[in-house]
Amino acid sequence: MHLRQLPFNLLLICQILIFVLTGSSEARQQCRLQVHNAQAVLEPPTNPGTGATSTTSSDSMVATGTSSTSSSTPSSTSSSLPAPTPFNYGSDKIRGVNLGGWLVLEPWITPSFFENTGNDNIVDEFTLGQLMDNDAALNMLNNHWNTWITEDDFKAIQAAGLNHVRIPVGYWSVPLTSSDTNTSTSPAPYIPGAWPYLLKALNWARKHSIHVILDLHGAPGSQNGYDNSGQRTDNPVWAVNSANVTRTVDTLRFIAENIGGMVDVVELLNEAAGFRGDDWAAVVRQFWLDGYGAVKQAAGQGIKVMIGDAFLGVNSWTNFLTHPGAQDVLMDFHEYQIFSDLELNRSFDDHVSFACGYMQSLSSYASSNLWTVVGEWSNAVTDCAQWLNGRGVGARWDGTWFPGPTSQVHGSCTNFTGSYQGFSGDYKTFLRRYWEVQVEIGENIQGWVFWTWKAENADEWSYQKGLEGGWIPQDPTNRLYPNICSGS
Ligand SMILES: *[C@@H]1O[C@H](CO)[C@@H](O)[C@H](O)[C@H]1NC(C)=O
Ligand SMILES: *[C@@H]1O[C@H](CO)[C@@H](O)[C@H](O)[C@H]1NC(C)=O
Ligand SMILES: *[C@@H]1O[C@H](CO)[C@@H](O)[C@H](O)[C@H]1NC(C)=O
Ligand SMILES: *[C@@H]1O[C@H](CO)[C@@H](O)[C@H](O)[C@H]1NC(C)=O
User: Fold this and answer.
1) Would you list the DSSP string of 51-102?
2) Cβ-proximal residues to 394 (8 Å cutoff; 6+ apart), any chain
3) In 299-411, where do the E strands start and end?
4) Residue 151 annotated to the active site
5) 3-class DSSP state of 209
6) Where in 378-481 does DSSP place strands (E)?
7) Using one digit for the tens of pLDDT, what is the confidence trace for 79-117?
8) Closest ligand 1 atom, CA of 181?
């Protein structure tokens, strides 16, 4: 089932491309090249003329193998998509949102998807593939991929003054073939099929002048054991098996080769669990080097590569992948203050001043190491969002945490999460301050990417609902609390 699904999707892409670009059945082996060089053409087959674009782009990232494809696309001058506008990562500020819960499911972002499986033991995409009839699951997934993020979201993101999206994707969605890796290509038990939706999103991003950070969010064996890696487990094995790591590098190479011309930044891996010990940390370190090499070699020097601090703090990565030995590397730092009693204990004011504490340390790191971005942060100050800690798991905040409540109850979750119709005026005022302070920290370095654009029932985590509810301004440079960190 899984294995049959893959070639079908690939073939579909190839057929559309060959039809659009050459009108002939020529060269199936050029298929991948064409996806790469054609700046991703994946409009619906019913309208094959739309979205076909120039292969003579000046984009230096589209460097290899263009000549044969160009010569076979006489219509390439009638491009309907604008040429990419380069983003100046050294000086322009990344202002972005994550497209969370789309191509990688998270129970708390879309609880209804998990409820609709009718099986409480389905807690992530791994168990979805294991425990549900695969045709039924694929139907649900296709419906979700079609509806959770659409072109309208890209329009709204652009209208909100944002210039980037970060798109999480799981390794199982990347259609490696046996010529791309000497490791396994089987996605089992995961259900593949998200790749064409990613290609559509890259098209929309280009069309609406949004830059893309493509974020490998789930690696084989799981890099952290979180449900958002695809598999919730106490025993992630990504780093303990070198075939898993090799496959991850091969996946990144495939991404860079095939869609490197359509993404600005390839993030090698989200939230690798460097805290699991020295062995893990050492594997992560070597993986950053190997992944950097693979992406640069496959996509050319123009592409940017993002690594993460692996929960070790940015200062664990001084003089690492820095210029001139490496080029165009970004550091991703995530800022949350909700996953321990210590943090949940903080008052609103304490949350703001604690955030201000990052201002100095991050900018100091950024000034002598890597361009640094707060690639995930939110407005939440509780862990109250339903299933935030995992499907079926409660919250530390109100003492419903599983497997047992922590020693402390901080309060009721009512009106801290869910619909903002229940949020108090004080809370919304705070949400605006907290949004501003974190934006301020990001603007002080190379930028920020809010987690996340949409969530079904957790408005404190939703950029979209923040705009609607008024605690996020339509113009992200607008400030009610200028110099918010100066006084504290
Ligand atoms: C697979 O192994 C062969 C033989 O060692 C090697 O030439 C090739 O580069 C490997 N492929 C990948 C993708 O690592
Ligand atoms: C990752 O490593 C584990 C542990 O060795 C192995 O059982 C598993 O098959 C690997 N996962 C994948 C997807 O290759
Ligand atoms: C949180 O605050 C309470 C009340 O001041 C205190 O008793 C408790 O020790 C604090 N918890 C942590 C983890 O700091
Ligand atoms: C939560 O908000 C709703 C709607 O404003 C309100 O009716 C309700 O009393 C609030 N509940 C609590 C516990 O504050």
Assistant:
1) T---S----TTS-TTHHHHHHT-GGGGS-SSPPPPP--TTTSPEEEEE-TTS
2) 400, 401, 402, 405
3) 304-308, 329-335, 371-377
4) no
5) coil
6) 447-450
7) 467 667 789 998 999 999 999 999 999 999 999 999 999
8) 13
CATH node for 3-51+73-486 = 3.20.20.80
CA angle 393, 394, 400 (to 5 degrees): 135
DSSP 32-48: HHHHHHTT-----TTST
Domain extent listing, the chain: 3-51+73-486
Q: What is the pLDDT of residues 401-433, one digit of tens each?
A: 977 767 789 999 999 999 999 999 999 999 999
Distance 340 CA to ligand 3 centre (A): 11
Contact predicate 86/154, CB 8 Å:
no
Asked if the bond preceding 74 is cis, omega within 30° of 0, the reply is no
Nearest CA to ligand 3 atom 11: 342
Residue 376 annotated to the active site = yes
Ligand showing the shortest atom-to-Cα distance for residue 396: 3
177 lines ligand 1 (CB under 6 A): no
Q: What pTM, to 2 d.p., does this model score?
A: 0.86
Whether the pLDDT of residue 40 is over 90: the answer is: no
Catalytic member of 257, 271, 440, 460? 271
CA of 422 to the centre of ligand 4 (A): 6
d(CA 95, CA 115): 33
